Amino acid sequence: MSTIVLLLVTGLGLGALYFLVASGLSLIYGLMGVLNFAHGSFLTLGAFAGWEAARRMGADNWGTFAASLLIGAAVGGAFAAFTELALIRPLYERHIEQVLVTVGLSLASVALFEGIWGTDPDFITGPAWFRQTTNVLGATVPNDRFVTIVVAVLVLLGMVLFLKKTRYGMVIRAGVENRAMVTALGIDVRKAFTLVFTIGGAAAGMGGVLASHYFGYVSPLLGGSLLIFAFIVTVIGGLGSLTGAAVASVVVGILQQFANFYWGVGDFVVIVLLAVVLLTRPNGLMGKKA
């Protein structure tokens, strides 16, 4: 029983990481129709920014962790906004060029990060509580998993409230449905779309900081490895569905943990799940029909 509980909680923690990356992918595609293959770069840069902030502050406490999380989110959001303004905005409605540019940016950013921070991973420590464990129904669970889960839930609630309750959220949803009409009313939809990219990048930046604590290190390849599973989660949940991304993140994270523990084939099982979903529900679990 304790093993099952441990796998469930750690699977939820892993799924929370996937969601923090996939939420930005899903939001950007659902509202803007952009497949952003450079999204992992936002995560990696946010992780390095948080690591640098924590290293320079010196103390491994909650204040340092909170500051690194906010700095990671700010840097990830700023890099995402720059990417949208400089590279994506001139290429709206030109999807092939968008893919080529974002793939190129992802490859170039890895080389840039390696040039700045080196190719070897840099190990990271957090508050002492992170290195402790909590007993849950007989299972000894690392405490950092709980922080990752809580942050992911807060990000999900924040995105949903932003889209449904704020003026910019309504402008974004209206712009997706009928961009010409919103523009005719004197509203600059481009600013709203830049904000969407910024929010997605901030979520990825936070995910990068949390991933560095989850795995215990930060490296130039961190974002690329998580981006693969984030894309799988986004496709399984349904492109453009934030709720679908949340559900798929939980399913993929838990399934991967169980399959790895019992059979050592977690990645393979996730790929099989992706194939089954695409064959039976091509639009994903909660995706809308084109």
From TrEMBL:
Pfam families: BPD_transp_2 (PF02653)
Protein keywords: Amino-acid transport, Cell membrane, Membrane, Transmembrane, Transmembrane helix, Transport
Localization terms from the record: Cell membrane
InterPro entries, per the entry: ABC_transp_permease (IPR001851), BCAA_transport_permease (IPR052157)
Predominant subcellular localization, coarse grouping: membrane
Membrane-traversing stretches: 64-87, 99-117, 146-163, 192-215, 227-254, 261-280
Entry keyword annotation includes Transit peptide: no
Superkingdom of origin organism: Bacteria
Record membrane topology: Multi-pass membrane protein
Keyword Aminoacyl-tRNA synthetase: no
Similarity comment text for this entry: Belongs to the binding-protein-dependent transport system permease family. LivHM subfamily.
Family matches, as PANTHER family: ABC TRANSPORTER ATP-BINDING PROTEIN, BRANCHED-CHAIN AMINO ACID TRANSPORT SYSTEM PERMEASE PROTEIN LIVH
Protein name: Branched-chain amino acid ABC transporter permease
Organism: Arthrobacter halodurans
